[in-house]
Amino acid sequence: GQQLNQSPQSMFIQEGEDVSMNCTSSSIFNTWLWYKQDPGEGPVLLIALYKAGELTSNGRLTAQFGITRKDSFLNISASIPSDVGIYFCATRRGSQGNLIFGKGTKLSVKP
Amino acid sequence: AAGVIQSPRHLIKEKRETATLKCYPIPRHDTVYWYQQGPGQDPQFLISFYEKMQSDKGSIPDRFSAQQFSDYHSELNMSSLELGDSALYFCASSLVVTGGLIEQYFGPGTRLTVT
Description:
The complex is a heterodimer.
Chain A: E1 5-7, E2 10-14, E3 19-24, E4 32-37, E5 44-49, E6 55-58, E7 61-65, E8 71-76, E9 85-93, E10 98-101, E11 105-110
Parallel strand pairs in A: 2-11
Antiparallel strand pairs in A: 1-3, 3-8, 4-5, 4-9, 6-7, 7-8, 9-10, 9-11
Chain B: E1 5-7, E2 10-13, E3 19-24, E4 31-37, E5 44-50, E6 53-57, E7 64-68, E8 74-78, E9 87-97, E10 100-106, E11 110-114
Parallel strand pairs in B: 2-11
Antiparallel strand pairs in B: 1-3, 3-8, 4-5, 4-9, 5-6, 7-8, 9-10, 9-11
């Protein structure tokens, strides 16, 4: 079935560093989404991408929809302790919109 | 702004018991999705409803059923609970608009523990 390959699985960085994570698939998608999940909470939508090549920012976060429509990346600049959490890429499967997720990138930030 | 509401937030049940999880979508949202997230896993789609009709079905066990009511809230009914059903259960809601849909917003989840 359709699968999203997200990497890295985990990251340990110093506060102030930039972070980059990506998501790839063998299938073409029309939407790429990035969510952040804090422990025991629901995923929160960070950025939504709808067009190949699209580059979108949300504060210190920047995400791009790959030209091939098979990948996306998320960058976080100047990380801070509250960036800690699990970041999921996701895309919609079918016209009804149910989501499939990558396995997540667990981000830890050392002050 | 109003968010998705789920109740209860925590639930402890014994094997073979039943459980009912409730979801109240964001006002005016017409689509509800249910996801299951095991420990250390990504959320897995279970089932969705659009305008009170089932719109899609994922990896939902036959022991589970769900429905969306006239006020758009949804309930996930789980019977003959098994230890493996222990997980976080999320509800998400969205709105179908001309040309697409508003992205899904997730509730805080219900943590179900089966002992």
